[in-house]
Every structure is written in C-alpha cells, then in structure tokens.
User: What shape does this take?
Amino acid sequence: MKKNQLMEKVIHGIFLVLGLITVGCVLLITIYLVISGIPAIREIGLIDFLFGKEWASTAAEPKYGILSFILTSVYGTAGAILIGVPVGFMTAVYLSKLASPKVKSVMQSAVSLLAGIPSVVYGLVGMLVLVPGIRKIFNVPDGASLLAAIVVLAIMILPSIIKMSITALDAVPKEYEDASLALGATPIETYFKVSVPAAKSGIAAAVVLGVGRAIGEAMAVMMVAGNVPNMPDSLFQSVRFLTTAVSSEMAYSSGLQRQALFSIALVLFLFIMLINATLNFFLKRETE
Amino acid sequence: MSIISVKELCLWYGDHQALRNVDIEIPEKSITAFIGPSGCGKSTFLKTLNRMNDLIPGVKITGDIRYEGTDIFSKEVDVNNLRKEIGMVFQKPNPFPMSIYDNVAYGPRTHGITNKVELDDIVERALRDAAIWDEAKDRLKKNALGMSGGQQQRLCIARALAVQPKVLLMDEPTSALDPISTSRIEELVMELKGKYTIVMVTHNMQQAVRVSDHTAFFLLGELVEFGKTDDIFSQPKDQRTEDYITGRFG
Assistant: This one.
C-alpha cells in the first residue's frame, strides 16, 4: 500500500518535471531575449531604433533603424493574409460542407502534405519559379521582391488556415443546418448564414494562427524577397523581414550590431506574443 | 380534404427497407399524429414529406407523394420552396446561435424580405402565433440560447411559422421537454390547427389522444392503421394496433 503511494508520488513528480521543461524553456528564452535585447535599444534610443528608416550596420557610421523591417513584416504578413485567408477559408467551407467524402480525403491529405513541406523547399521553388516569373510578367529588373514573399507566405499559411477552419466548421451542430434547410434555405445559404457564423471564433483563430506563421517565417522569405534593407515602398521592392534581418547578419556580427540583432529578435518576439494572446482570446471564446 | 396524399411509398437506407408501401391521405387544417415503437419508420416518413431525407447519402425512395396535387419529387419542384410551404420542427430545440429576432427573421430574410418594418411585423406575428411573444418581446436582441428548453422549442415553432408554411411537420417536438413545457406546446399545437395542417410524430400515446384528430400507427416500416384518433384508440381494426395501444409491446 505504502509502496504504491510512493510510486504514485514519484511518477507524479516526473511528469511535473517534464511539464516544467517547456515552461522553463519559454521563461529562459523570454528572459534571455529581454536581457540581451535591451542594451542596444538603450544605446540607439527606442525611437531611433523602431522608427529609424535606415539600416546600415556595417557602415563607417552605422545606422540601426528597423522601421523598414517592421513595415516589411507587417505588409508581407498582411498581403499573405489578404490572399491566403479567402482561398483557405473557401477551401475549408468546400471541404467541410460540400465535397464528397472521396474528394475530401484526397484534398485533406494534400493539405497535410503542404503543411509538411520544409520552408526551404518553398523558398527554392519560389526562387526558381516565382521570382523569374514576376520579373517577366511585370517586366521589372529583379523578381526577388515583397510580392514574391507575399505569394510564398500566402501558400505557406494555407494549411493552418484550412485545417483549423475545417475543424471549426465540422464542429457546427448538424441541427443548425437542418433547421436552416427546413426553412427553405439552399445549402450554400445555410453554410454561409448559419454554419460560418456559428464557427466564426474558430475561423478567426485560424486567421490569427496564419498571421503567426507568416510573421515568424524566415527561410523562405529570405530566399525570395531579395533580402535588401529597403523601405517596402512598392510590391516590387527587394526587402528584408524582421526574421531575415536577424538571421542574415548574425553569423558575422559583433558588438552593437550583434546586440541590435537581439533587439530585433525581441521586437519579433513581442509581435508573436501579441498574436498568441489574440489567438488565446479567440480560442477561449470558442469554448465558452 | 387532403393536402398531402401518399401512394405506395417505399424507402431504403442502403439495403435496409425503412418504409413499405405507405398509403395515406393527410387531411388539411387538422392534426395528424404518427405513433409507433422506435424504429418503426414514423420519423423517416415525416422527413420524406419535406424531402429532408434527400440529404442522407444512400437513400432510395419509390412511390408517389403529392402535395396539393403536385408530385414533390418531380424535377419542376423547387425543394427549397417545398420546404418553405412544409415547415418543420425538430425533436431537440435547435435555435440558431443568434438573437431571438434574427432566428425568427432568418426564414423571411432568406426568402428575400429585407424591409425592416415588414420584418418586425412578421417576427411579432410569428412570436405571437407561437405563444412566446410575451416572454420574448423585451429580449428580442438577446441570444436565443439563453432561453429555457420549452421557450426554445416555441421559438423554433415561431421560426417555422415566420415563412408562412401551410403544413407544419413536428418530429417528437416535446420529447426533450418537461411536462409543463410539453402541455404549453400541446395547447399551442391545438390553437395552430385552425390555420395550419399539422403532422406530428409522437412517442407518447396520451399526447396523440389529447391533441390529434387523426392517428396513423406505424410498425416495422408499414402503416398498419390510419383513422380518426377516437376510433383508433377505442376500436382499432388491426390486432397489432390494439396490442400496441394497450401496451402489450412498444
């Protein structure tokens, strides 16, 4: 009897420790980022850092303004959402409500596969197909641009949006749909006027998740966006994202430059935190 | 006079035959009750009348159903229009997760009414007809899911009435409700029969006796007996009907 109880306690303890590993990692990363991100911001000045338009980290008189990165990340994500959400949402409605079981299973495996493709492959295909394509179609000197990044990101966020929206739409009680059909509404009217509104929190969460994926993506956008610290004045400008700003200079950086990269990571981290909080808000509403 | 007439209706779910040669004439502006043990096909038959069974994969239907003389399975029939004429109330109250007003206005809006004044009028009339106006009038903008089960069911009736159907199909409308809510729904149903034809599936034989004018007894997919409720319950012609209503099985 006593031995059993001891065993229970030990196992309980082991699980607790395992759980704490995750919490510990989050805490560690947060603390580390804040500690290493603050000094450069202090030295450069918060306003100059966040709203400075010029990034010239290796110049004789270095400039550390990351406004171009912030705007690029925001525009790039917004663009990806603008394209990816309608496509993903409509796909989800189709798969959840209209598609035959056969079509549904084939398309859902395709969606899962899309989710499993490494981002470097997206980048590669983007480099080889999309970038030259943009150059030819729009007749611009270089196809590596904000537009290319937006298209790649839009495709990359599709799986998360589709899968989460399907989950939300599948969870809508059939009784709601039956009631609508019995009132003489057509199936399409029923899906858009009853099913979608009933699933709206879940769909909103799917969108936020997509935002999170898009803003955090580094590899693919580095390969197709040109990776030049320009202000994103046009869709065809070669640009650099917050993520790629960190990754492209980290290898050879030192001193204030290195510290500034940590500060960029901190800014990115805050964006992600904000997005996560929004996501939790929607998910919580969903369960209520 | 009959509003719906059914001849030799058979229905299969895949290989399983759920209805066998059902013939019935449903009289207009009266209450017809379908009784019978679970799985006897009474709900299936009810859902065939407004073609809600179309939605189930693997269903095969043969035979003839005429609503006001028109074959409801004919290609010219618009199924959405048919369902507007033949409304339905479900076993479990199923208001949409929206406001009381929007629930009732859903049908009319779907059928193209956008004028606010007109909608207000329809909503009020439907809620009054369903005997829930007094309870709902001060909370029209509140979510319908905040109402009690009995209120929700009367709201669902109001929602069905708002598209001005001629027939109202009710699939065990009180089986999920407490006795007080049940008797309110029963009273309501009896008030409605002046204006509507009501077809009601019920598990509860006393309910059929209390409410209905005609009763149809189903068993194993067959319509065993159909007639005036008084006759069915006082002098059933078929032995199986007698066995069922006297509680020998069920």
Observations:
- The mean pLDDT of chain B is 93.
- The two ends of chain B are 32 Å apart (CA to CA).
- The beta strands of chain B are 2-13, 16-27, 31-35, 59-67, 70-71, 86-89, 167-171, 197-201, 214-219, 222-228.
- DSSP finds ten helices and ten strands in chain B.
